[in-house]
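Protocol step 4 of 5: obtain the predicted structure for the target chain.
Materials: sequence only (see below). No template structures provided, no constraints applied. The aim of this step is simply to have a reference model before the mutagenesis design in step 5. Sequence pasted as it appears in the construct record:
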Amino acid sequence: MLENLQIKNGKKIIWCLLLCCAFTRILAQRKTDSFLENILATNKNPLFQKVLSNPDEYRLQIIYTQINRDKNNVPAFTNYYFNEDSLFFFNPASTVKLPLAALSLEKLNTMKITGVNKFTSMQFDSAYQRQVKELQDSTAQSGYPSIAQFIRKAFLISDNDAYNRMYQFVGQQRINRSLHAKGYNSTRITREFMGYTEDENRHTNPIDFINNDERIIYHQPMQYNTDSFDFSHTIKIGRAHYDNNDSLINEPIDFTRVNNLPLYDLQQILQSILFPYSVPSSQRFDLSKDDYAFLKQFLSQYPSETNYPKYDTAQYFDSYVKFFFRDSAHHSIPPYIRVFNKVGWAYGFLIDASYIVDFKHKVEYMLAATIYANSDGILNDNKYDEETVSHPFMYQLGQTIYQYELNRKKKYQPDLSDFKINYEKRDPHDTRPAIKDADN
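Step 4 output (structure tokens):
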């Protein structure tokens, strides 16, 4: 009997130790570097310090990437973290458009079909419940959809239809298999921005690539994903939410089965696009030199510089999707600075992953951050604290790191000529009405 009791007690001790180890692993995944903490402490702005002092309340995560060049101009990247944790969920919102753009170009390259490229006109049919056709695109110079036009719209103002169409082209199965094969195992992209069911998101529209005479060059039939997903990690946020019928549900909103793109994966995807040789070959996208140049251009080009689409520059100002330089008092960015980035915002979350270049002062660095600000705890009510908390915080964060970089001593000054781009210029004689209300 005593022996049985000792065995039982021993099992309890082992079980407790296992639980403690598991709990320690969970806590250990939250990464914060004192070096970055010290930089952030230099900004005494009250709002900025309030958010930093309550990182879990604001679901705050930051990655600052220092870039140092050697004598041959080869960059080396060092990440510094604040409250970063791949298991600390945030809604990635429109940041998923970044990998979708790269995957769309990659798929075009692997198809190897004569006449089919990012500029080829496309038409989207419907073959399953609630699918929506798209045969023309009035924002494009050709009048037709294309992968190139989707990327422009997705990057310039974060257009939602552009994302949906790239999702339909690549297909849910290929999206996730490709990202996992590149090492982004925690990333999961399962939804269009259409309010579809899980089954509807597994089905994607039939697509035709057409020539100038509207003759079909290539037909892609409807795709269906048979792969399963791991939804074992339950994620619930808030105290209440409005459902699709605008009814108030006094329970947290369930994010368990939605898109997931951890901040580190997002930062690495951006780095792999801008600096492909800085990551292992297995992590790179299969892109051409022209593809990389195209992505770089529209990750940094302003709506005011773009003719197609022609966006209203009062609504979609230069810093509209440049959160680290989006000041409520000024909507312009100094002409010697360019920001290559992708942002997202939804359900009170605000995210930005950026590579910043200052050509005048020879400064370059990467910065990625996410914040959640929703003081009433109710989600899907379109009442969030973006203007009073999130945007001011992101601007203060951006300026804190920028000022640090301005004063940081480097052994070798970078040659940033690879990031000098001949951007478009608006045609002053263009009388077309500007787009003022896009779904983004």
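Step 4 remarks: The CA atoms of residues 349 and 372 lie 4 Å apart. The radius of gyration is 23 Å.
Proceed to step 5.
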